[in-house]
Structures are given as structure tokens and as C-alpha cells.
Amino acid sequence: MLESARAAWVDNSQLLGNPSSLHASGRAARRVVEESRESIAADLGVRPSAVIFTSGGTESDNLAIKGLFWKRREVITGRPVVIASPIEHHAVLDPLNWLAEHEGAEISWLPVDSFGRVSAADVQSAITAADGRVALVTVMWANNEIGTVQPVHEIAAVCRAAGVPFHTDAVQALGALPLDLSGIDAVTITGHKVGGPHGVGALIAETNLALVPVQHGGGQEREVRSGTLDAPGIAAFAVAVHEAVTAQALSAERLRDLRDRMVKGVAEVVPSAVLNGDPNDRLPGNAHFSFPGCEGDALLMLLDAAGVDVSTGSACSAGIPEPSHVLLALGVDESTARGSLRFSLGRTSSADDVEALLVALPGAVERASRAGSAARR
After folding, report:
1. Catalytic site includes residue 316
2. Dihedral (Cα; 68, 70, 73, 75), 10-degree rounding
3. Residue 27, H or E segment
4. Alpha-carbon dihedral sign for residues 117, 122, 126, 128
5. How far is CA 1 from the centre of its chain?
6. 341: enclosing H helix or E strand
7. Does residue 203 contact residue 174 with C-beta atoms inside 8 Å?
8. For the chain, the helix, strand and coil percentages under 3-state DSSP, each to the nearest 5
9. What one-character DSSP code corresponds to residue 185?
10. How far is CA 320 from CA 302, 304, 368, in A?
11. What is the rounded distance in angstroms from the CA atom of residue 202 to the CA atom of residue 36?
């Protein structure tokens, strides 16, 4: 957490009131919440009423997708369609699959190019093919694995012209890219990606966007997200969002320089490595590589032993590692997809961190490659 966000949390954690209570302590807590809402709205260029506080990105995605689907289903004749990219985070993919299995949704999966990018023309084609049955379109702002940035404003314009709500998961984009939310119906953000606390986020949705609640209770947050509001967490979240937005340009420039140095260095020390995603139009702190002949999990553990934290995009089912759904959607074969890692740079990353990776990586790749060869034999 940012020191300023931590200080805001500590200061406000002494408040005793429930923000929904009418007594003085409750009103004091409510003031913290509403001032934080106004701060976030000002930083993102939206109205305060558009900011719906949640527990984080997963809840915001579920509220947007399920809430919009259920509301739009009331006015759609025939089987409702949700249009989405196949490279979404599981916080989007899993609700979509649940709607298909339990609520009769038809999911129209958009094609992506070799960089993992969706085209607005394909969105238009999918809307046309659905013939008035589209409940919503959801395409993430920037991919969490390969870092590719999507043409969200082009997609939003297509959706608005067709009268279809558009949702984007901007969890990775906040603080990394300049965010213009105009013309976008619903946007997911979260706190811990920008130096705020875990367990707090928001769905940015204009008040004219009708949503059915996912959870019911006290009717907080425009009666679409019930639950006692975490005033200290929200205060810290607002501070983190403000710093992320105001520092975005300088931070992106610094991270982009580090990332380019890392990409160049990886190519030099492991010539067989393949950079995934768009080489230029990507998150400034993201680099994603495939290492042919290696298992990503083995590489992860070898680098972890050397003090380097990295991520795979794979999932485990019954103890069996599965390749990244993102890379498979790009047309990467399963073997190569299994041998892929994401390297992320952030606020605390330095040139020394990049150098530590470049020192540790060749040996890790050699050992992982030997282990992979032995396993195949």
C-alpha cells in the first residue's frame, strides 16, 4: 500500500459509525464515504453518483455482467446474447459461463488477432448477427496476462450506436494508462492494483444504467450493492486512485523504460524466448514471454527460489496444469502456452530488479528445459 493510503486507512479506522446510520457517528462515517466518492469521481471525470463501491474487481465484474444481463433480459425477445472476448479475466469469464449454464445466456465469443486484440468491426458484426438480442458487450481495457490494450472507445462507440450497454474491466489499466471514461457505460476498477487496500473497488456506472442487484440487503449504493460500507478502506482507495491518476504519465514513462530494458535483456540471455502480445501498444509494466521446451510452473518455482516473483497464466484442475486460455485464443499451441510467464513491473520496481531477473533467468530456463525433455522422454 502507498504510505498515504495506509495513513488514510489508519486515520479513518478509528471511526465507529456505520455509514448507513443516522446518528452523529454514522454521519461522520458517511461523510468520509461521500468525500471519497467525490474524489474518485473527480479523478476519473465522472459524476459521483456513478461510483458504486464494491469489495473489488471480481464483485464489480459480476455486478456489471449479471446485473446488466438480468435487466436487459426483461426487454429482449428471444434468447439474450452476451458478446465478449475469449481472453477476459476469470472474474468475467466465469460469470459468463455461469449465465450460459444457469440463465440461458448465449455467449458470442469475439475473435482476437495474434496480439490478442479485438476489433470494433467484429463487435459490430456480432451485434448485427444477434438481431436485437444483445444484453451487453464486455471487453477488458487491457489484458492482465499479455498486456495488450484494446480499442475500448471504438468498441464503446459501436455499442452506443446500437443501443447496447458496454462494460470494460479496467483493473489493469487504472494508473497504467490514461483513462477517458466518456462514452463507456460500466467500468470495473479495484484498489490493490494502485496501492490501495485489498477488498475494496468500484463499478463506475451512470445512474441511467439499470442494474439488477446480485446481492440483497440494506439497499446501499443505489440499491444495487447492499452491505455495510468500509469507510476506512474507501478513504484509502480514494487516496490511491488520486495518486494513480495524477502520477500516471510519469509512472508509465519510467515503467516503459524498465520494461523495454527487460524485454531486450530477456531476448539477449534467452534468444529462444518469444514475446507475447502487442510489442508496443501494451501495459507499460507488462512483459509476457513463452519459453519453448519449458514448463511455466517449473520456471516459476526456479525463479522463485532465486528471489524473483513471476506469474503463469495457467490454471490447475484436479492438480493438472492447464495452459493459458489467453494464449490458446491467440492460436498458440498448448505446449508453448504451458511454457509462458508474465513479468510485471510496478511502483517499487527498479533497474536492479530487472538485472536480478536477467541473471537468474538463463539458468532457470536451462534447468526447466532439461526437466521438460526428461518428462517428454
Report:
1. yes
2. -70
3. helix 24-44
4. positive
5. 18
6. strand 340-344
7. no
8. 45, 15, 40
9. S
10. 19, 20, 18
11. 12
Distance between CA 184 and CA 88 in Å, rounded? 17
Per residue in 110-167, pLDDT tens? Answer: 999 999 999 999 999 999 999 999 999 999 999 999 999 999 999 999 999 999 999 9
Residues whose CB is less than 8 angstroms from the CB of residue 107 and which lie 6 or more positions away in sequence, other chains included:
81, 82, 84, 96, 97, 99, 100
Kindly give the pairing relationship between strand 320-322 and strand 315-317: antiparallel
| Grid cell of 370 as nine digits | 532439461
**pLDDT tens per residue across span 65-77:** 999 999 999 999 9
Residue with cell 499479455: 146
Q: Residue type for 339, please?
A: G
Give the 3-state secondary structure of 36-52.
Answer: HHHHHHHHHCCCHHHEE
Residue type, 10: V
CA distance 353 to 25: 46
Amino acid code (one letter) for 8: A
* pTM over 0.90, yes/no: yes
Nearest 5 degrees, angle CA 265-CA 345-CA 230?
A: 170
Q: How confident is the model at residue 16 (pLDDT cuts 50, 70, 90)?
A: confident
Catalytic site residue from 75, 161, 249, 316:
316
CA dihedral (231, 232, 238, 244) positive or negative:
negative
Q: What's the rounded Cα separation, in Å, for the pair 236 and 240?
A: 6
CA dihedral 172, 248, 112, 163 (to 10 degrees): 90
In whole angstroms, what is the distance from residue 172 CA to residue 193 CA? 7
Cell of 139: 471487453
* Domains of the chain listed by start with CATH number: 3-246 (3.40.640.10), 250-376 (3.90.1150.10)
How many other CB atoms sit within 10 Å of the CB of residue 278? 18
The pLDDT tens digits for 221-248 are 999 999 999 999 999 999 999 999 999 9
Instruction: Provide the edge-to-edge strand list for the sheet that holds 81-84.
Output: 51-54, 201-205, 186-190, 166-169, 134-138, 81-84, 106-109
Tally DSSP H helices, then E strands, for the chain: 13, 12
pLDDT in tens, 176-195: 999 999 999 999 999 999 99
Angstrom distance (rounded) from CA 200 to CA 205: 16
